Amino acid sequence: MQTTLQRAKDILGTGLHSGKPVRMRLCPAPAHTGLVFRRVDCPAGTQDVPVSPKFWVEASLCTVLENEAGVRVSTVEHLLAALHGCGVHNAIIEIDGPEVPILDGSADPFVRHVLNAGLRHMDASVQVLRVLRAVEVSHNGASARLLPADRLEIAFEIDFADPAIGHQREDLAMSNGAFLRELSDCRTFCLRKDVEVMQANGLALGGTLDNAVVFHEGTVLSPGGLRRGDEPVRHKMLDVMGDLYVAGYPVLGRYEGVRAGHALPGRLLKALFADAANYEIVDSDQSLAAALPGAGATLKDLRLSA
Asked: Which residue of 16, 17, 42, 63 sits 20 to 30 Å from the alpha carbon of 103, by its own alpha carbon?
């Protein structure tokens, strides 16, 4: 069955790149609405930005959606990952600015807001996107591909010169609350030198050691160090959970990424939808619904203390 929130939930935070306060509200929505961002600071008739590959625009630092009126919402990936991982299919996301708040740099706070609001099951079957044949995109030594699979699987590989990151690889199935247990607490990360360059160019103005893992010459600068030994690659997988939900459906398929940033998953979805032979949209039966990422997920699945 499709789900939405039982009640609205307010979220306050700061935009990572703007450094400005952001007020966001997650609201229940009827079946078949999908996920829709609503820019309440914009004129009526231009406010809605549906979560769909049609509205994905290429960006290097985050995932961005933009409607026909040119209204944008950026840094959507962590929130979409939380909604995907919790099995939320319908919601109106009211927001008073162009950027989703960064919070602690992971999806964990969003998951808590969603599950504390509660989920309401609806009398409508969940439509699922099933990958039927391999699709791949690549750019400058990075690659991303989708393969057929009976559940959502994510494999990711990264390789950084900084010895505190180095080479990392992880491969996980996202069924039955695995996102909450394995990925949701993993924070965005960067090198200190990159932060300095971005801030000099007016970006990452809201970035702090409290909302990102910052590395410098083999050292973790953020207080408390890493939450997991391979937190960076797991965060990349978290981003993929959000980026794949831009499809507008839960995905049955295997994603494999190698050094893939935010642009490649979007390009991959564009390539997938470019040929109807690549996929099919199916109504999930009980057994299929039970294998989706949010099935049975609860706050007990989270690793961090409340």
From this structure: 42
CATH topology of domain 3-121: Ribosomal Protein S5; domain 2 (3.30.230)
Element (H, E) at 233: helix 231-245
Q: Give the CA radius of gyration of the chain.
A: 18
Q: Which of 64, 106, 74, 88 is nearest to 2 (CA)?
A: 88
Banded pLDDT at 204 (limits 50, 70, 90)? low
Pick the closest to residue 82 from 74, 91, 72, 73 (CA basis): 91
- Paired residues of 164 in beta bridges: none
pTM of structure: 0.95
Nearest to 115 by CA among 28, 5, 25, 33: 5
Q: How far apart are CA 163 and CA 202, in angstroms?
A: 28
Cβ–Cβ contacts within 10 Å for residue 60, how many?
8
- Any idea where the domains of the chain sit in the sequence? 3-121, 127-301
Using the structure block, give the residue that is written with the tokens 């995109």.
137
Percent of the chain with pLDDT over 70: 98
Token pair recorded at residue 182: 């394995």
The closest alpha carbon to 187, from 110, 101, 106, belongs to 106
- Is there a common fold for 3-121 and 127-301? no
* Structure confidence at residue 287 (pLDDT): 85
Catalytic residue list contains 113 = no
Active-site position among 17, 84, 235, 262: 262
Residue with tokens 């049955």: 252
Q: Hey, what CATH class is 127-301 in?
A: alpha beta
The one-letter amino acid at 39: R
